[in-house]
Amino acid sequence: MGVFAAAAVVFIALHPFCDLWLQRRDDSIAKEKHGQTIVARGPDTKALTVSQLGRRAAARHALTYTGAQVAAAAIVLRSLGYRIPVTALLAGAVVNGGTHAVIDRRRFLEELAAWTGHTDFLTEGTVLRKLGTKPRPAASGPGTALYELDAALHLLIGLIAAVLTSRLAVREPAGGTALRRGRRPSNILRNRKGHQS
User: Fold this and answer.
1) What is the largest CA-CA distance in the chain?
2) What is the DSSP letter of 180?
3) 87-143 pLDDT, tens per residue?
4) How far, CA to CA in Å, does 41 sit from each of 28, 29, 37, 61, 128?
5) Which one, 69, 153, 166, 169, has least CB within 10 Å?
């Protein structure tokens, strides 16, 4: 398994776990909220607008998500014998985590859906949620078109992050040879080099 495949497994296969299991309930509710209404908080806490609370929730979620992916990537890559530069791993994680926060705020995702002709899909792909005693339609969350577009875009970006990480990990450094899996060349290769000199 190459560096790319290992990074792709972490960034793509672990996406649902990092995105759903590690997300705080409050962040999942607040992260897509927008508005200038002031939200009263505790007596010792500064009041914030709904948008400010939403941005904070999205940032907190993205940090948790990214931290878990970096830790998992380091463990998986190391256990497979790859020693990649920290900068390569962080570059992929920053792309993945930074875009995660933007997508989860929803406005960009909705604009992208409109730009690509998926507005009807968004308006038709709703579900009923049982909140209290009355079911009511929901356009966001599991089972909705917005949720499916969100997941698909996160997976695509996970692939891009894996390409970036692997590309940076195996590029040729200024001093010479490209970074490879932790194996020494065989005696045959060393002997051939010796005869050619």
Assistant:
1) 83
2) -
3) 999 999 999 999 999 999 999 999 999 999 999 998 888 888 877 777 777 888 888
4) 18, 16, 13, 20, 30
5) 153
